């Protein structure tokens, strides 16, 4: 069962203590929680664009996460924060899902051990060719 994170204190905790990965489409923060449930939050700042672009970015991220959650049962017991980037609203949901799956697998593989780990992700070769 998915639960939406709405409290600012949880967002701040993940930003300061969580592990994260950065990609031109999406930034993902994760941290193990004590409840054993999957919780997620989505953030899109005004840098992402106007209201229409921000809402589309959040909608695309939400749809990608719902599909991904069905396929990855090992995600239970984790908190996720997804931060939209300026390119998020301009790409298809499948591309966001592919990036999200790669980030989630990389960040949850360690079992939640350790403190803050910054993991910058190189842009995949396929994306370099598109630009």
Give the secondary structure arrangement, pairings included.
Blueprint (H helix, E strand, L loop, with lengths): L1 E3 L3 H10 L1 E4 L3 E7 L5 E6 L7 H21 L6 E7 L8 H16 L9 E3 L4 H6 L1
Parallel strand pairs: 1-4, 2-6, 4-5
Antiparallel strand pairs: 2-3, 3-5
Helix pairs in contact: 2-3
Report on this structure.
The protein is α/β, with parallel strands linked by helices and 131 residues long. The protein has four helices and six strands; from the N terminus they run βαβββαβαβα. The protein has one domain: Ribosomal Protein S5, domain 2 (2-Layer Sandwich). The chain has a six-stranded mixed sheet, sandwiched between helices. Helix 2 (51-71) packs across helix 3 (93-108). It is globular and about 35 Å long. Mean pLDDT is 85; it is low at 113-117.
Structure, briefly:
With 131 residues, this protein is α/β, with parallel strands linked by helices. The protein is 40% helix and 23% strand.
